[in-house]
Amino acid sequence: xxxxxxxxxxxxxLPVSALLAKSAVETLERGETSLAAEVVDGDTLLLENxxxxxxxxxxxxxxxxGRAGFEAWPLAEExxxxxxxxxxxxxxxx
Length: 94
Hints:
This protein is of the alpha+beta class. It has 4 helices and 4 strands; from the N terminus they run αααβββαβ. The protein has a 4-stranded antiparallel beta sheet. A hairpin with a 4-residue loop joins strand 2 (44-47) and strand 3.
């Protein structure tokens, strides 16, 4: 179940137009593979190879992330924890 959810999140990285266009889907190639090393917030993670991955198609609640005077949105920590539970330490293929 965890791998299915992780696969679903990775597919969210693809542009919606590519998912809708059959010819675009047929030409997709696997991207790089790396370990999910750090979760920044509910929709951003860093891979071990230095790649920053933003999940598209969702808007996770925001964390301050060093921004002065910025208050965390409700459920921001829970969103980050959910992505950590799903992806942290997992090998991901873009």
